[in-house]
């Protein structure tokens, strides 16, 4: 762990990123989607864990279970979602399950027979999920019965967002849709031409003050008003640079994080930046390449960079506070904040706990032998992780989990119901 001074967080990442991309895309022909860096084909060997590491924090695995086939061997954006004492989970072959946060008991489950790829999102009695075939499906959050489905233009690798009577979704071809939450009918669409080469992924919209903030390919960020989809502003966070299309990849696939009137974003092969969400002005930017994600609290920003180094920085100007490189190349998730701790998952199913104030490693616990791809979910003092093999686990620092009222049991239904 290293404390950093007031300088650029990640010098040299643009060149390193381009070299890694060159290895990954060799052999590709006629395809505009580049495999996501940090994926299973990433050539960089993960740093071995310190076998003499001494745990400084007692962590308990509260429960562990298995849901379907996990990601089904595909690069998907299926994340666990905690709501009202329940945990909503989906797998790549179409299974949707709702578990009790307290003990992992199945409340209801449904086989949709779809190639699920993005979500879920849950608000009230509506649960929405996207598919690899470009469908968006709306289910009842109480029992899983299908309410509607809609066909969109391309694969959905983002988490759809429910905003009042609308569902906002970002497809992989850089179209942003607003659909009716009641019946799935299209209300408006915003489309942007994609560059020749892009990473295989897309950011999830963030809903703020009747606007949707969305990161798109080419290092661009756009604010769309929800009523009609008209852009409030659009900016390029990281201008494309380099002589080849490969070197010019600067996608914004990281979900924006909004604190107050400021959105914090990061691009691959580019920059970490702060943007005023009212005016679209860039307040500051720091050279740092990221694709996994970031987290923020009042005054501090935490990010996993493209080399799987974790950084702590100030939200005021992006100055580095600390960095943690003991987990380099371990294909880390975006960080999650739980109290005064930071939590990430890695390629071998380990969950790592760090101190927010200085980035030191506090504890680790293995929940699976399969990779944890997405940010852990946090609720009621618990951390929920979902591994590629379908393992779902709940962890907590000893004595910190808060019991929630038991969720009402629903009914399992089949696709024909």
From TrEMBL:
Q: Which InterPro entries match?
A: BamB, PQQ_b-propeller_rpt, PQQ_rpt_dom, Quinoprotein_ADH-like_sf, WD40/YVTN_repeat-like_dom_sf
Q: Where in the cell is it found?
A: Cell outer membrane
User: Keyword Transmembrane on this protein?
Assistant: no
Query: Start and end of every Pyrrolo-quinoline quinone repeat domain?
Result: 115-324
Instruction: Provide the membrane topology annotation.
Output: Lipid-anchor
Task: Answer yes or no on keyword Membrane.
Answer: yes
What GO cellular-component annotations does this UniProt entry give? cell outer membrane
For this UniProt record, the keywords arranged alphabetically read as follows: Cell outer membrane, Lipoprotein, Membrane, Palmitate, Signal
Q: Give the main localization category.
A: membrane
Q: Which GO terms describe its biological process?
A: Gram-negative-bacterium-type cell outer membrane assembly; protein insertion into membrane
UniProt xrefs under Pfam families: PQQ_2 (PF13360)
Function, as annotated:
Part of the outer membrane protein assembly complex, which is involved in assembly and insertion of beta-barrel proteins into the outer membrane.
Query: What's this protein's family per the entry?
Result: Belongs to the BamB family.
- What HAMAP family does the entry give? OM_assembly_BamB
Its quaternary organisation is:
Part of the Bam complex.
Please state what the protein is called.
Outer membrane protein assembly factor BamB
Organism encoding this protein: Thiorhodovibrio frisius
């Amino acid at each position: 762990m290293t404390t950093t001074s007031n300088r650029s967080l990640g010098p040299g990442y643009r060149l390193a990123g381009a070299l890694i991309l060159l290895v990954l895309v060799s052999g590709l022909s006629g395809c505009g989607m580049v495999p996501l860096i940090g994926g299973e084909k990433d050539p960089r060997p993960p740093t071995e864990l310190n076998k003499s590491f001494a745990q400084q924090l007692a962590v308990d695995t509260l429960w562990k279970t298995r849901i379907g086939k996990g990601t089904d061997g595909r690069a998907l954006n299926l994340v666990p979602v905690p709501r009202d004492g329940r945990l909503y989970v989906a797998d790549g072959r179409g299974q949707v399950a709702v578990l009790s946060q307290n003990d992992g008991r199945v409340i209801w489950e449904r086989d949709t027979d779809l190639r699920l790829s993005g979500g879920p999102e849950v608000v009230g009695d509506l649960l929405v999920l996207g598919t690899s075939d470009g469908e968006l499906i709306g289910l009842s959050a109480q029992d899983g019965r299908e309410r509607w489905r809609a066909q969109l233009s391309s694969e959905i690798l983002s988490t759809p967002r429910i905003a009042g009577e609308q569902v906002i979704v970002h497809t992989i071809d850089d179209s942003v849709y607003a659909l009716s939450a009641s019946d799935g009918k299209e209300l408006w669409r915003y489309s942007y031409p994609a560059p020749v080469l892009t990473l295989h992924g897309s950011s999830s919209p963030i809903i703020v003050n009747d606007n949707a903030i969305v990161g798109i390919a080419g290092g661009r960020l756009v604010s769309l008003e929800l009523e009609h989809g008209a852009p409030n502003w659009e900016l390029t966070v990281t201008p494309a640079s380099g002589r080849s299309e490969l070197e010019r990849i600067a996608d914004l696939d990281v979900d924006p994080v909004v604190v107050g009137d400021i959105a914090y974003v990061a691009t691959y092969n580019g920059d970490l930046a702060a943007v005023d969400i009212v005016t679209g002005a860039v307040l500051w930017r720091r050279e740092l390449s990221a694709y996994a994600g970031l987290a923020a609290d009042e005054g501090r920003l935490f990010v996993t960079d493209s080399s799987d180094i974790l950084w702590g920085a100030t939200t005021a100007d992006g100055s580095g506070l600390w960095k943690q490189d003991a987990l380099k190349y371990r294909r880390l998730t975006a960080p999650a904040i739980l109290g005064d701790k930071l939590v990430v998952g890695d390629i071998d199913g380990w969950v790592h706990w760090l101190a927010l104030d200085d980035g030191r490693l506090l504890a680790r616990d293995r929940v699976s032998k399969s990779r944890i791809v997405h940010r852990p979910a946090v609720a009621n003092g618990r951390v929920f992780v979902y591994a590629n093999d379908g393992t779902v686990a709940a962890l907590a620092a000893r004595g910190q989990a808060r019991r929630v009222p038991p969720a009402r049991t629903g009914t399992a239904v089949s696709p024909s119901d």
